[in-house]
Model the fold of this input.
Amino acid sequence: MLKDANTILLYIFSLSTIDGIFDYDCGEGKKIFNNKEYHPTSKEDILDKELIDSLILSYTEKDCLKRGTKLSDDNYQICWCENVILSFGALNEKTCIPFRTSTFKERLKKKMDKDKKLNKNEEVKCTCSNNKGKTIIGRYNSVTGDVKVE
Done:
């Protein structure tokens, strides 16, 4: 650990433990971080925690989209994305991912371009929610080159 350990980094480490408690030592003796006692107060730390929770703690579409409605920042959304990898017999992957609303289409296009370079034939559909109660759908198809946000 770095001497000036970032609290959000400790929070991430604690999420991989069974009880949410993470022991660490930055040269000043053993300290304990308990994620149940972590209540960030700065706007940046609150948003970081919300985005990390969506990535790590959302296992269902319902939970993922619910987190989006509770975000503290208007420029973010939480998306339940389904990737259908066509080149592997329609393998389907589902994940919860935060995106900046203002760059959502651009990020989808970049991912599609990367898939094309890797010869990955993939269709991706993301259903997103934000704190304004709006649902946004983003999708791309690396075979056709089609990218849409509606």
